[in-house]
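Blinded run. Sample ID left blank on purpose so nobody reads anything into the name before looking at the predicted structure. Input follows.
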Amino acid sequence: MSKPVPSLLWDDARVFLAVARKGTLTAAAHLTGGGIATLSRRIDRLEAALGVPLFVRHQTGYRLTDEGNALLPKAEALEHAAQAFESQAEHETEVAGPVRLATAENLANPIIIPSLPRLMERHPQLELEIATDVASVNLHRRDADLALRMVKPKRGNVTVRRLATLGFGLYGSLEYLKKRERSPDSGPHDDDAFIGWSEAQSHLPAAQWIARSLRNRAPALTTTTLSAQLQAASAGLGLAILPHFLARDAGLQRLPVELGVDQAIWLVIHSDLAQSRRVRAVADHLTEVVQGLQGRLAGRD
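Blinded prediction complete.
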């Protein structure tokens, strides 16, 4: 007869999940707010209580054993139950506590952060954390409570709503356009210098449009962030595909080219937190801000 699995406490499951998801005690401690030594003791104690090894310890971090993998769904079930309990209890209380928002830097800095004073004035007990490293943020793992994204999630325990469209255009500085040279028999952009994306971002619609236009030529400059592309275009290094509102604010000039690379802006919320008052307050604020700027974001004004 197989040995029965003891009941897990939520605190034990929370530590177990943090180490399993992050792979190191350091990263797990940052996620949970605990100390590395405390987390190590908790994992050792949990393994002793269960009578099985949950992790294989390597110099590079912690890896789940087969027994640990088998326990993962049970720990996630506890997590979902705790989140639902927290959301229900919070429904009757004031808007207070931490909310983690994941979004792109080009939305956070010029749009979201300047709008926050009125949100914080409305809800002074709210504690907001903004993560702009969206590539590593996963709502299903609870790395964040909600997100503003340009890619619609195709799976996960989330609710999704389209808020607006982010319009893009081909832009260059006035200085670059003045000295731009065109050969009589060349294509529309054969003689242009482009500011492109690095290989890691080659899947982006803007990166693919530039790759087609370059026709096997190398870009003048590649970057990994939109803010760097904006600065490079402003410095006259070449043409870049940029959101209309950022390029216009920087005084860049748009070329009359239809790119077909506009992107939807999606509000994504972890489903277990959809009724949480504090998460709902942030979601409502983001909806109000983004929808109020629909024309500017789309490039219609």
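Unblinding after everyone has recorded impressions. The chain is about 45% helix and 20% strand.
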